[in-house]
User: What shape does this take?
Amino acid sequence: MASKQEDDAIALVGLSVTMKCKKKRIRKAWCIYWLTKRNEYTHTILLNELSSVPTDYRNYLRMNEEVFQKLLSLVTTLIQKKNTVIRTISPHKKLTATLKFLAMGQYECPKYSTINPMLLKNNSGNIYSVLKNCES
Assistant: This one.
């Protein structure tokens, strides 16, 4: 029967062997690939394709293209960032993300992972105020 010291020594040897065998994970630069293909996988291309089929466009945003463009022109001044150094999100993308959020009732769309949920709340308030002012 092995003593406690021998058991500890065997455990330490086994641990050191597994630590030496463990390879460092080689990181892949997959994000660079996506950044170069950003225009290929954006919502803008999808909306351009959907505009050829009005029922699909309406199903996606819950409004037709003319209404979307009108709403975008009304809301752009409120949701557009000014004087920023970093890359900003276009008003078109912000409005699309907000409308998808309002249509779905949840925030789970990976296409808009860069959109902060607080931004959606602010955009919703801006849409409401613009539409309320148009009504009166």
Observations:
- The first helix runs from residue 4 to 21.
- Residues 113 and 132 are 29 Å apart (CA to CA).
